[in-house]
Amino acid sequence: MAGADVDAVGLALSLTLVAVAVAVSAWRGLRLERSILWSVLRALVQLLLVGVALTVVIDPASPVAWSWLWVGLMLLYAADVVRRRAPEVPRLWSLALAAFAVTTALSLGLVFGLGILPQEGRTVVPLAGLMIGNAMSATVLVARRSVEEVRDKRLEVEARVALGHGRREAARPYLASALRSALVPQIETTKAVGLVFLPGAMTGLILAGVDPLDAVMVQAVVMFLVLGAAASNATVISLGLVTRLFAPDDRPLRIARPPDA
Amino acid sequence: MTGPARQDGPAAGRAASPLFEFTDVVVRLGEITALDGVTVAIPDGGVTAIVGPSGSGKSTLLRLCNRLEVAERGRIAYRGRPLEERDPRALRREVGMVFQQPTLVAGTVGDNLALADPGADDAVRRGALARVALDADLLTRDAGALSGGEAQRVCLARTLLTRPAVLLLDEPTAALDAAPTRAFERTVAALAEDGIPALWVTHDLPQLRRVADAVVVLDAGRVVAAFGDAAEAAGHAALVRLLEPEGDHGRR
Fold first, then answer.
1. B96 CB near a chain A CB, below 8 Å?
2. Is B222 within 8 Å of B60 (Cβ atoms)?
3. Rounded to a whole number, what is the distance in Å from the CA of B230 to chain A's nearest CA?
């Protein structure tokens, strides 16, 4: 391949860029030197481990089941990240896990089912990773905004319930507004792509020597996948949150504010 | 303790069982015990005032009646039948509520009335406004542009569109001036005359004298007194002592 191979020397030399960051920290008294070095070390070790594992998993000789197992572990971890980033949302982990699982099944099902890309180790893990990683912020956003919205509009919500509305009906306008505000950033990103920034997948492909137009095609698929994933994930969270914010008899539950808020 | 037993008024004939009967009811809201063993019967007819200082559990008692709260212990019967046997949504339409603050949603007055009965035509909605002494022209008015008194009446009209058999009023006039307060009181009294009894939470002694047929007094999550006759209640030393320190007496 005519791509840009980085050898060990190249990698070592790129650390001079880290030295710049450390120098800035020392110069301006930011006291971030240790944290920078630690983060770089972690990133390097994590990436190397992932690289080694990926080599095994995406080896055409390995069964594709290994890739799906990997995806499963990613789902568990992603759900945990969402839970930690939205601590005020009650019992979010299982909901987030369900959302990621539905989204992954739906979107990868489409991509592989329609034969847009072949289902093999080389595609399963990176696509799932991209999708889950990018859907994460919309997921956190919709969870936090929904809780905030229902809490702020508690009087209106209670009045609707008191009029005999079911919990889904009573919550709908407030959850819709939260869903909207969670999806807008993703839509804006999709609009700005190419004009403002070259997304990671495309940059990587071009650096690795792939023809830019081919890279664009792959990137387009990835972008649409991410947009769809964000929408589907946020929707599952939004629908599921009703059971976290209301009792089965439609009563709005009291949601405690997180201790640090 | 015996509940207020009303023997006169429009409901005297059919008031075989109480409207609501609470037996040893305990409600905890998080760390707080809001009601601590309440046993009381609410008469089926007229306006029953629920009074007591802030934090005494008045709102909680009211909100149990349409299941916006649930009891941790004890029994609640609505017209002789355990409350939990009723379908919650049907119960809430039968036991209507008006809150302390107007709870109108964005849109017109008509949009708000549609929340209670999407199928109601203009004649029905005008009728609902007329019952709370509001002009039918208000239907197309933006709900955000109403005065506090008008907004609370629209809330009452909206509740009436579910054809309630009972009204729960959680300090509905707390934020209103004297004139709209009186108008609201007259409307509720007329509805009670028409056979829709009301439970009215207040901590305003003069209001109690004006509206109440029966009185339940709460303090620290317990019923400390119950009167079948408001005149007797209003002169009761314990009641005056409970309500006066709050400085609400004669506020309006």
1. yes
2. no
3. 28
